[in-house]
Amino acid sequence: MTELSGSHFLVVGATGVLGAELSRRLAALGARLTLSGKSAAKLQALADELGNAVEGTVAADLGKAGSPTEIAAAVYGKELNGLVFAAGVVAFGPAVAVEDDTLDELMLVNLLGYMRLMREVGPQLVRDSVVVQVSAVVAESPTAGMAAYSVTKAGLSAYGKALTLELRRQGVRVIDVRPPHTETGLAARPIAGDAPRLPQGKDPGAVADRIVQAIVDGEKDLPSSSFN
Ligand SMILES: NC(=O)c1ccc[n+]([C@@H]2O[C@H](COP(=O)([O-])OP(=O)(O)OC[C@H]3O[C@@H](n4cnc5c(N)ncnc54)[C@H](OP(=O)(O)O)[C@@H]3O)[C@@H](O)[C@H]2O)c1
Q: Whose CA is nearest to atom 34 of ligand 1?
């Protein structure tokens, strides 16, 4: 059982639907939060909502190479009991037609920013801390029309597996979370292309509940099947 009361979590992508739901639940369980997102206005609104639970905020665009350093500066010198990475963008369209700007943004926001951030804040993760990286079901089942997005999520999951092995001695648990399609509206705001017709997705609150349960219960992996 992981005690969240009095812990300190950095939540990246806190301004998103899943990130905000996770932040609310962590705050309700007594965690102190440093929140990061792209939109300064959404970040401020979430910080106002969560009040005293918020230790700091940092607006940073992961599409820019220096942003992981900006995020790390917000927690510099502080111990971390948790890191949640819930930032991400999606793009649709044929694999052979994807444009360079789309590829670059997908890779930077979904994968490279996180890898650079881990390099900076990894040493601040204390014993019995937890890293939650929100990958996706497409990491398990790469999907037609979503090749580049699938690659970023599969890369994230692969990175998480290696990270698990490397950080075990430090006492850090890495949970790779691979939710199925969830009704956050993400598919309606792609950076390129148009979403295909999708079946009804999961409820974001239920997905966040399941992730927090995994944090508290000491689970080590959260495949798509665990959201059924
Ligand atoms: N919804 C689904 O069906 C589903 C399924 C599986 C996995 N996921 C994953 O879950 C995570 C959260 O997605 P969501 O569904 O909650 O979507 P969302 O509401 O659109 O949240 C996306 C988050 O990513 C942040 N973000 C986007 N571009 C960014 C950038 N350039 N720099 C920094 N932050 C950026 C957004 O910041 P701002 O809001 O401040 O712009 C927001 O916090 C993503 O990694 C997504 O791939 C989603």
A: 38
Closest by CA position to 203, among listed 226, 177, 184, 222: 184
Taking 90 as the threshold, does the pLDDT of residue 118 lie above it?
yes
| Right CATH for 8-227 from 3.40.50.12780, 1.10.10.10, 3.40.50.720, 3.40.50.300 | 3.40.50.720
Instruction: Give the residue, out of 132, 134, 159, 225, with the most ligand 1 atoms within 8 A of its beta carbon, to mutate for a pocket test.
Output: 134
Write down the domain spans for the chain.
8-227
**What is the amino acid identity at position 26?**
L
Ligand 1 centroid to Cα of residue 17, in Å, is 7
Q: Full-prediction pTM beyond 0.85?
A: yes
Label residue 1 by pLDDT band (50, 70, 90).
confident
Atom 24 of ligand 1 has which residue's CA nearest to it? 87
* Sign, Cα dihedral of 49, 75, 84, 30: negative
For ligand 1, the distance from its centroid to the CA atom of residue 51, given in whole angstroms, is 23
| Ligand 1, atom 7, residue with closest C-alpha | 136
Q: Which numbered atom of ligand 1 lies nearest the CA of 14?
A: 43
**Span 53-87, pLDDT tens digits:** 999 999 999 999 899 999 999 999 999 999 999 99
